Structures are given as structure tokens and as C-alpha cells.
Amino acid sequence: METDSLDVLIVGTGHGGAQTAIALRQFKFSGSVGLLSEELDLPYERPPLSKEYLSGEKSFERLLFRKPEFWREKKVTLLLGRSVRAVDPKAHRVILGDGTQLAYERLVWATGGAPRRLSCAGSDLAGLHTIRTHADVDRLLAELPAVQQVLVVGGGYIGLEAAAVLRKLGKRVVLLEALDRVLARVAGAPLSRFYEAEHREHGVDIRLSVNVECIEGSRGKVTGVRLASGEVIPGGMVVVGIGIVPAVEPLIQAGAKADNGVNVDDFCRTSLPDIYAIGDCASQVNSFAGGARVRLESVQNATDQATCVARVLAGDPQPYRAIPWFWSNQYDLRLQTVGLSIAFDDVVVRGDPATRGFSLIYLRNRQIIALDCVNAPRDYMQGRKLVETAARPAQDLLVDLTRPLKDLVGS
User: Fold this and answer.
1) Which of 168, 357, 372, 405 satisfies CB 3.0 to 4.6 Å to 382 for a cystine?
2) Are 372 and 401 in contact (CB under 8 A)?
3) SS3 of 83, please?
4) What torsion do the CA atoms of 44, 114, 150, 143 make, to the nearest 10 degrees?
């Protein structure tokens, strides 16, 4: 059985997918548009899942991008609870999980990624959780009242955000990180040490340089984690936050060029005809990464790439040139990042971390390439221009708190 063809089929209903559909209508695209997702939920925001939704501060309805009537009014067909098994780029068709074929003129792949799973013994036990979807968090919350101690595997942003919320909910938390500091892959050591101290101050037991050997269990349910050292840490729940695997297998099987995600050009076009990829699953050469090909996991990247694709499809192509930015909320700390600190060779601390308001400024060959700003929104806003202009101010000016960063633009 086959449904009618769509002018634009968007696979994935996160920030990238939803923004593509919204932007197409904003740019007066009049063709048929479909949004397809394995999930049954209306398109919704993902970042609050590990923060406001997990803590109960926001209802799921407040996470929705738009109300149901919006999609009807904009004539966007929602194909929910459907999965793509394969893509036939020559025939311009996707084969769905139930065998149905769906034809398209242009295909936008915005699937993000699947949480990376533990591969050790016991990783199939009940009580093991990831935080990627609404359903993931609902399952976690359903089990949480019966749990006293939670073990968080992974000291990246997801793990740290979850640990902060779980402490707020009154749970004992042990965080396990394989490297010698948290945030080691994305930030400099001063930021890592600051967040380690903050979490310990809030009661999180952080264990660094530890490796999980297996998940311990009884009667099919998690009872703890055994480390490579032989130590067993008890816990009734394990939350795993060790990154994602880009969900691009159907495109790769169809012949798309891929390198840690499917490769795209400056207009987010894959190597397959009339197929675009955006967001967490797309690998793109980025001028803010020194011309390296990178895959960015951020709301900014997903929404800006979506706008780029929508412009292409609406007949107004403009290459992607957006500056990367990120954020993380933990306790009463708001971290705002601008730029990419990839391959930095120096880092300047502006302000005193003891005041819980400071910035890290990353440099490469004396050029400012990124800032991490903790409770320092002014530095974040003004530092953006320093990254955009590849400024090279003297370090003594960067640490001088009497000098606003905006005064250093052009230096």
C-alpha cells in the first residue's frame, strides 16, 4: 500500500524537524509538508527533559512547540508512530517499518540520535534508564519513588543535569565518570573542577577515573554497579548519559557519505539527491571549528540548520554560517557557551569561580575561539562578538573586570 507523495518529508520531530516545517510556511512554501516520527507525541522540546520536566517544574504540554491546531492550520501532515526502515533515493521513496512506501520530492533527515548504551553484562536489567524522549523520562519518574540511591554513569551535561535534579528530588546520587574530570570532552579543566565542587557541595558523590565492569541485579532488576576495581556501589536505578549514536543508518545503507553522522555541505545537502540532513545527526565543515568537520548537538545548530534548509527549499538558498552556542542549567547555575573550544591551546579565567559568576575564555594562537560563562550573561553577550571577529586582545585586558568585553572588539 502507498500513500500520496509529499513535496517535503521531514523525518524527526525535534527542534530541527519542527523548525523546518515552521520555517517553510514562514517562507511561504506552499507545497505539501509531512513530519514523521517514531514517537506518538506532538513535536516537543528535548532539552527540558533532563531539567524542568524531570524536576516537575514544567508539564509536558509546556514542552510542545505548537498546539495541535497550529499544524492543522499550516497544513503540516503529522505522521506519528511511524519509523523509516529504508530510503530509496533513486525512486524518491522511504520504506516505513510496516512496509508502507511513502514518496517524496525532497527529504529532510532530522532524526538526531539514539542514546549510547552500556554494552556490559546486566545492561538489559530493569531500572536502567536514558534521557532522550518524553517516554524515557516518564518511565524513570514512574520508578523513582521506590528508589533511594541513583547511579549516574557519565559526567557530561546530561549526567550532571540529571544529578542536579535528582538531588533536588531528595535522592542520593553517585556519579561515575571514566575520565579524570567531568565535562572533559567539551570544556577546560577550570570549568570541570568548578562543577565537580558544586555537585559535591550539593551532596553528589562524584567518582572520577572509574570504569563500569557490569550492572549488578537481582530478579531482573538493577541493584548496583560493579566497577573494574571490584567495588560494588549499590543503587536501585542507573541513569546512563554517555552520548548518542547518530540515527542515520537508512541513509548510510542508501549510499550517503558519512563521518560520525551523515556528511552535509554548506546548504545541509547530503551526497544523495534531494536529501538534506540537519541537527545532531549531521556532520558539517564548520568555520568556528577551524574548518574541521564536526557534528554539533545543540538546539541552536538544529534550528539554524533547519532554517537554512527551509530557505533552500523555498527558493532562497543561503549557506549555513551560524555561530554555535549552548547552555546548561544546574542548581542555580546557568552556563552559557558561545563558539567551539576545539583544539584550544590556552584558557583565561575571567572573574573568580568562588563568586559563582565567572567566564572561561578559550584561545587558539592567541585568537578567541569560545567562552564558557557561568552566571555571567554580560560576558556571554559581549563575548559573542569577540568570537565572531576572531579577536586577539591582550590577556591582561581579558582578566580586567573593569573592562567590558565589548570594549575589546577589534583588538
Assistant:
1) 405
2) no
3) coil
4) 60
User: In angstroms, rounded to a whole number, what is the distance separating the alpha carbons of residues 320 and 305?
Assistant: 7
Residue type at 166? L
Angle of helix 15-26 relative to helix 299-313, nearest 10 degrees?
A: 40
Cell numbers linked to 305: 540548520
Question: What amino acid is encoded at 273 in this protein?
Answer: P
Name the pairing type of β-strands 333-339 and 367-374: antiparallel
CB atoms within 10 A of CB 256: 20
Mention every residue, 6+ apart, whose C-beta is less than 8 A from residue 362. 188, 339, 341, 344, 346, 347, 368, 369, 370, 371, 372
Q: How far, in Å, CA of 259 to CA of 279, rounded?
A: 14
Give the pLDDT confidence of 326-360 residue by residue, as tens digits.
999 999 999 999 999 999 999 999 999 999 999 99
Query: Please, what's the b/e burial string for 151-182 (b: 16 or more CB within 10 A of its CB; e: otherwise)?
Result: bbbbbbbbbbbbbbbbbeeebbbbbbbbeebb
Evaluated on CA atoms 259, 362, 374, 409, the torsion sign reads negative
Backbone φ and ψ for 88, nearest 5 degrees, come out as: -110, 95
Three-state SS for 65?
A: coil
List strands edge to edge, sheet with 232-234: 212-218, 221-227, 232-234
